[in-house]
Amino acid sequence: MRAKSVSIGSAGSLALVAVLAVTATGCAGSQNGQPQAGDTRFVAGDGTMQVFTAAERKAAPAIQGQTLDGGAASLAAHKGKVVVLNFWASWCGPCRAEAPVLKDVAAKTKGSGVEFIGIDFKDRQADALAFERTEQTGYPSIFDQPGKVALAFQGTVPPAAIPSTLVIDEQGRIAARALGAVRYQDLMDTVTKVRDE
User: Domain residue spans in the chain?
Assistant: First the structure.
């Protein structure tokens, strides 16, 4: 399977408008309505980490974009490492609740071949920057106001809630997903397992 490449910049499509219309519903709840591959609708999530076997894993798209601090971030820059992608927004309460978890796991695993990238989804840049100053995550976040990074996962394992967390293995495949605020032990266990494969 060939990975799609997406670069953040221009305005989104009509499909994105439909995604935005239901985004707020994905900010909390249960995981009963989990979408299938290719489904970009947002659903509620309880933060449960779903781990995929090697045979089930799909290639992640080759995402890249400008970070909130004006730099650049991409999956390609971390080739051969485990990458944790966290989709968040300053307007999302569960995102604030899980921020210390992500920060702690990122700090504890950074020296062992794991990188974290945030994806700030459908946010105002000023609000997102204030969130970053408060939380001091220690890793970059791509400013994805149009929502193109989330749409790039259509046909794979979509981040169908805000927050969502995807764990990308060393081969660039989606190894795990959590919809909703992720719990510390679940994230640490999953990241460690994928890293040690």
Answer: 11-195
Question: Residue 134's CB: how many other CB atoms inside 10 A?
Answer: 11
pTM of the complete model: 0.79
Are 187 and 51 within 8 A, CB to CB? no
Query: Which CATH superfamily, name and number, covers 11-195?
Result: Glutaredoxin (3.40.30.10)
**Residue by residue, what is the 3-state secondary structure of 2-33?**
CCCEEECCCCCCHHHHHHHHCHHHHHCCCCCC
Q: In this structure, are residues 118 and 139 in contact, taking their beta carbons and an 8 Å threshold?
A: yes
The strands making up 141-144's β-sheet, listed across from edge to edge, are 49-51, 174-179, 164-168, 82-88, 114-121, 141-144
- What does the pLDDT look like over 115-159, one tens digit per residue? 999 999 999 999 999 999 999 999 999 999 988 998 999 888 888
